[in-house]
Amino acid sequence: HYDEDEDIDFSDLREQYEVRLEEGLDAFIVIDGLPVVPEESKSKLIKFLLRKLNTVGKTREDAIFMPLNDQKKSEGFAFVEYETPEQAIAAARALHGVPLDKKHTMLVNKLTDIDRYGREGRVDEEYKPPVIEPFVEKEHLRWWLGDPHARDQFAIYRGDNVGVYLNRKKEAPENIVDRQHWTESFVQWSPQGTYLISVHAQGVQLWAGPNWTRQKRFAHPFVNLVDFSPNENYLVTWSHRPIHVDEGHPVLSMEEDGKNYIIWDVATGKALRSFQTIDLPGPAVDEAGNPVKKKIQWPAFKWSADDKYVARMTQGQSISIYELPRMNLLDKTSIKIDGVMDFEWAPATPQRDGIKNYEQLFCYWTPEIGSNPAKVGLMSIPSKEIVRTRNLFNVSDAKLHWQSQSKYVCVKVDRHSKSKKSLATNLEIFRVKEKGVPVEVVDSIKDTVINFAWEPKGDRFVLITTAEVLANTAVPPKTSVSFFCPEKVKGQAIGNFKHIRTIEKKNSNAIYWSPKGRFVVVATVHSQQSFELDFWDLDYEGEKPESEKDLTANLQLMATADHYGVTDVEWDPTGRYVVTSASIWKHAVENGYHIYDFKGTQLREEHVERLKQIVWRPRPPTLLTKEEQKQIRKNLREYSKIFEEEDQYELDSANFAIVEHRRRILDEWLAWRASVEEELRADRKEE
Amino acid sequence: MRPILLQGHERSLTQIKFSHDGDLIFSTAKDQVACVWFYANGERLGTYHGHQGALWTVDVDATTTLLATGAADNTARLWDVKSGKCLKTWEFPTAVKRVEFSDDGTQLLAVTEKRMGYLGTIAVFDIKVDVEAEQSDTPRMTITCEESKATVAGWSYLGKYIIAGHEDGSISQYDSKTGEQLLNVLVHESDMQVNDLQWAPDRTYFISASKDKTAKLISARDLQILKTYPTDTPLNSACITPKKDFVILGGGQAAMDVTTTSSRQGKFEARFYHKVFEDEIGRVRGHFGPLNTVAVHPKGQGYASGGEDGYVRVHHFDKPYFDFMYEVEREHARR
Amino acid sequence: KEHEEALVRREVIDKRKTAASNALAQKEKEEATQKRIRAQQILEAENQRLREEQREREQKRLKAEQDRIRQEELKKQIEDLKTGVKGIDVSEMDLDDLDTNRLRAMKLAQLEKEKNELSERLRVTGKRIDHLERAFRREEAKILPRDYQA
């Protein structure tokens, strides 16, 4: 009976226990919109309710809790526990919006759906009836842009909690809001940062404003993924499960039955149109007869830069373009493109030489079919004019990469030799802004390009290549990181793309450009062996090597950092900070985040138990005009003076506060020691 | 601060103790032998043979005359420090997880395991600090832990209280004369075992290390929590440094709890925190597995850590260690 | 009697003869031994000398090799110094005067200088970026209420 190890790990038990608690709450619903009654009428109302409640499930009188206020009156809402969570779901679905009498309409929600606020006992204190929402004066949804210290926010999803914080660089971030069970699977910001999206089994919810109130709900049962249009006017939700709509569903109609996608109007909260998933072509079972798990295409519905169109491809056949907000098929017909493999909208309305009527543009490619070569095309919408096509040979795959202002689209073409063996990559760069859309080819790359990224708002790009991957080796092959930029030419024109430098024998696999351009982090993520983060400057203000004097870049490695187990890297929207994180979704070792400044100096490192996500809140384009911005740049020196004083003051007062705090702590300790020593002396005498 | 590596144990270390003048280090491991080493150069002075199971615990009295050990063979033993002779063997129904002499050496407590229908106990023996003397066969008193078994225990100043740490994360204060439980406080997270309890030099307060990833500084007279040291790893051991106001914490995720195969050494570090300000000051790496025990030189000259990897690492502090001071401490020193 | 004496003498003579020849043999033997020992000593000395020579040669070779390596290392370091972003002008230095320690010190100093310059430039860049962002925000905050009205 040697007891080598008595440490019994209870964590799994506790988790089970917690889950059970959760399930307990899952059987609760909240009914709102009830008449306010005095104490003596309460049981009558409960009996009345019970008849309705038992039409969809089983509950009892003592499972209905209707709190009374100080005046001994009910508050217009009640909590009900059903026998099973399924019954609660059914009740929320069937009874929501059902009128009780002329004046009162029941609003039924699952308790966990409301907010998933806390545990039993605390519920009634924190509960805010959703029914008051329409009467609240519309909050200013852009309140957060006005932080006096120009700090940015990020959301952290850890364990069961979601919190939003202000970045305070080295200091612990300042918590703005923290809610338990705010989301069920993940959180996401809308593209301009207005809304925080929470995702639940019943659908998605949008939260915003200084009080983080719910702005909208989109009831898509068992939703898996969400995607906003660039200007936040619409969103698309998707579930791998076809929607099952019951008769009398408060939001969805039979139209949605059997569908996987819903396109929603954010302003009205209405479903505009729904679609089924189109399976990618290919066999449904593999050679052994097992069902093939089809890769889902996401996003399948792609938005044009101006929110006017949303398009979906039927692989190999056509692209369907829908006009918003009516969601009618453009010209009542899909655009047939034989063999089409992929398409991407221009991320900004393209500015093209000699073109006055700006239309939206998308790029697509088709593979070799019979004796016809592979093809890349650019199509203008709504005219459907083909602006440019280009034939390509020996193509095994292609990827489309737009530059953020739609100045260029780079088609990364993986090519095989005649024998179909060796792979090489060509870059076919379409210069969209220039007359006739000339195409520049970069074919000097011998290895396979595994990653490519344009500088946002810039003309430079980074790519990562790797030699042929040997099968059955535990160690991933070494990679090389290459930087390219246009060469210097006279005037406004942009020269040809030239290779700047290649860094060999790296493990890097990911590229993260600052959203403002200029700086880029090249990292190794999701690796077991390597965790490097290289911080590069492409416009280093120091001396430039003679050999690169004809290039529009001065490349400089600023710093190399190491974040053990890093899974995610994200720049803040201003390009001043980088957050790297290790998420429990990928592994359970040292979950937490680091904050670096743009030059790779680590400002903060925090271990966060069960960290799932840390995501920066995006910002909308600046409200300032070009002229105003120019003016500020001109007077930057004046602003600098103020900021320097502010920073110094803050530093001084922070230091002062720390010293004061320590002094107090030390004094307290010494006082305690003195009293204990006194007592000890007395005890000794007694002995 | 270059460490001396003590190689002699074949299995993971369980406890390390310094003699009261700091010249000797006693160590126990799961390999059934207790060892004694010179602190100055790490040379092995001798071994204590006799136990038939993994050794869990060791203590030496204030005059470095008697050594007590406890083991998985259900015995606690008393040894002549000098000759290595076993002077006394006490048998228990279960393993002995912790032994400790009172500060005057006249009493010894032994914490026994809860197993097979036996509740955990704390047995107290009267001891004659003399290698020739006949020691008593039976405990003077036995405290039975009804609620949650004790994992560690020790004597407060003047042998006034027996303080015990429990499996459920709580700490108890017992009257050492009567065995009556005076206080029981849930100091650590519920059901997060207390793995170590070590004293400040005057035994008026102590530090507890728990699986809940924290160590706490606690007052012996009222079990008030004075300080908390949060870390990111389960803690196995903690000690309070004399001379400087630091605490040293040791721990690490056991290999079986680590979900990936990563052999990151990052967690296997001795961590130094400022005792009063609760800030982390620094870390010392070196072990290849979790640190099971840390012990500090009684005059604050150095410390030793024992790891799951079977090594004892002895560190002699250097000048920067002694020079390190917070501005407010300097200020106070000048006053 | 005379015959007896003669016999005795003869015996004595014989004895002497034997003794003499024994002595001679003994002497010759000793001499041979001496000679052998001498020869051995000479051989030993010669071997010793050869070993000595061998060792010296080996040492010389090693030193030459080390010198060569050091020289190459030196050359490489000088090349390193010349290249890099801001090469040091080594044309005026007498390369034979340089030893690796000095070179290393120069290299370190150069790296240190580059590092300092990099961090100083980036500090200035960082401040500008931060201040510009804050200035934009400050002005933007003024027009936020207008956005709210809209």
From TrEMBL, chain B:
Domain of life of the native organism: Eukaryota
Compartments reported by the entry:
Cytoplasm
Predominant place of localization? cytoplasm
Residue windows of the WD repeats: 6-47, 48-89, 284-314
| InterPro entries tied to this protein | eIF3i (IPR027525), WD40/YVTN_repeat-like_dom_sf (IPR015943), WD40_repeat_CS (IPR019775), WD40_repeat_dom_sf (IPR036322), WD40_rpt (IPR001680)
Q: Which Pfam families match?
A: EIF3I
UniProt GO cellular component terms: eukaryotic 43S preinitiation complex; eukaryotic 48S preinitiation complex; eukaryotic translation initiation factor 3 complex, eIF3e; eukaryotic translation initiation factor 3 complex, eIF3m; nuclear periphery
Keyword match tRNA-binding: no
A Gene Ontology molecular function term for this protein is: RNA binding
Report any one BP term from Gene Ontology.
formation of cytoplasmic translation initiation complex
Q: Which UniProt keywords apply?
A: Cytoplasm, Initiation factor, Protein biosynthesis, Repeat, WD repeat
Q: Which family does it belong to?
A: Belongs to the WD repeat STRAP family. Belongs to the eIF-3 subunit I family.
Role according to the record: Component of the eukaryotic translation initiation factor 3 (eIF-3) complex, which is involved in protein synthesis of a specialized repertoire of mRNAs and, together with other initiation factors, stimulates binding of mRNA and methionyl-tRNAi to the 40S ribosome. The eIF-3 complex specifically targets and initiates translation of a subset of mRNAs involved in cell proliferation.
Subunit composition? Component of the eukaryotic translation initiation factor 3 (eIF-3) complex.
Q: What name appears for this protein in its UniProt entry?
A: Eukaryotic translation initiation factor 3 subunit I
